[in-house]
Fold this protein.
Amino acid sequence: MGIAETYTRGRQFAVARPGSVLLALVGIILLYDLLSGLATGQTSFSSVGSLVWDGLMRGLVIGLAGIGLSMTYSILNFANFAHGDFITAGAFSGWATTYLVAGLGRADVGALLLVGAGGSVFGGTLGIGVTGTPLAVAAGALVAGVATVVLALGIDRLVFKPIRDEDGITLLITSVGVAFALRYLMQFVFGSSVRGTTSQPPSISLYFVDGAVRINAHDIAVVVVAGGLMLAVHLLLQMTKLGKAMRAMADNEDLAQITGIPTERVVRSVWVIGGGLTGVAGYMFILWKGTLGFNDGWLLLLLIFAAVILGGIGSIYGAIVGGLAIGLTASVSVIWIPSAFARAAAFAVMIVLLLVKPEGIFSGRSTA
Amino acid sequence: MSADTTGGADGDGAAVSRETIPERGDQSLLEVRDLDAGYGDLQILTDVDMDVADGEYVTIVGPNGAGKSTVMKSVFGLTTHMGGTVTFEDEDITGLRPEEIIHEGIGYVPQNHNVFASLTVRENLEMGAYILDEVPQDALDAVFDRFPILEERQTQKAGTMSGGQQQMLAMGRALMLDPSLLLLDEPSAGLAPDLVDDMFDRIDAINDDGTAILMVEQNAKEALRRCDRGYVLANGQNRYMDDGDVLLNDEQVRQDFLGG
């Protein structure tokens, strides 16, 4: 007993899992750096709080958008690279609706429908926001969801259904093609400029130790919508017949077929639910960050992939947890490194965690 | 209805009766005629004939690669159909898809991966009745009566149960629609030796309650002892067909297929 045994066990662990030990060391160094920064006043508690809050918002958007990707992965057995452009498509359709509802009569309809392409209309000028134009925002989020469902079903019918029985690599490469086609179609229609979409939302400052953490109305909207939809997906999967059939199919497609589960209909439901969530996630992403460009979904997709792989690809709970982890990492890492490397830090965390736990946080492919 | 084709492998003619009429009433439930089937371009079965009467217990035995499981998969629409017919309750079900066949009253328990591992026991049983609007309470109760362990373990994930329990769950799932024919692929495979007898007893009980059974078994002697009638398959063709006891005591069958 005692020190000798503790030492032996520690040594065995260090030899067996050098990655874990290294990871723990890096964690301790970073934590020490943070704590010493806080102690000497170089880093303020409130700035750390703001970064954590920012990371949570980013994480909720990534998690919400990741659910659809994880669903298609677990049930259709392929990584859908067009997912990012589904996000962008949802965002453009939703924001066109928001502009139209908010700006009808105040600006040219064509300019509104093109979401102010070429600087013809500005979201800020229209006073767009959850508090300023709640109806326009609600209508936009709804249309974003519906339009993405229609798009996902259409693309499935045209492209993915005919090659459903091919292997995952064929489907993946096809989806890359779909992604490019969609993205440049949207660039052609809406232009390549990045536009501001919202006016400054009202915010409250919460006192936090040595300063304030600002929380604005759009943050609250993201929390409510993403949280509500995540809860709804959870209830759907656990309580409803369709949800159980989706989990059954993710688990064992051959057996699902033998059991009499109408697999094609379940696949359609996956596109409907996954597409809807993806569209709304795209809309909320733009509402939260306040700018919209044709590359937004594609750039977010890389973080989403990191999140769902980290969480255990195929598990929707993994997508949510992975999204939060990646979002927090991308935001909080600027405490230690220049913000230009924030994205790289998110991927570094993914790679390191996968080295330690290769199957992801939730070992995947179960949707549960 | 001669159900077998050729004689012994070396052609010296085993003395096996060729004209055995199904025992219980001659009410034919399943009729397989001249079935050719396989996977993709690969043909496994050639001119296979097979009958199961209402409430009958039939086993298929034969060496590895004889096409035993393929017969069963073909009945359930899981192979490439290349010729012949499958008739169930006087209805032609040749070429129907599994999700259509399950409506006809045939249940199928595959050999491997036959439960949804990440779903609970109860959810597995609910999936068994997916094609119904509601989970039939009487069928659920009947399954729980038959396999009390499943009622105890309702909320447990199927993947965490033992092999024998998973096999019971797989059968329970297939029984949720109260099928008139149950197809069982190697139900004793992978079970601990002391559980094998128990499994065969349970299959007897299912059959006693009126469900016809078509079973593929590696454990050929025990299967033939238990069943009403047996088919010996070799190289994707019928070889012998007779009462289980008769096959069991036939010198040629014993030598060629039952290891002496």
Summary: Residues 193-208 of chain B form the longest helix (16 residues).
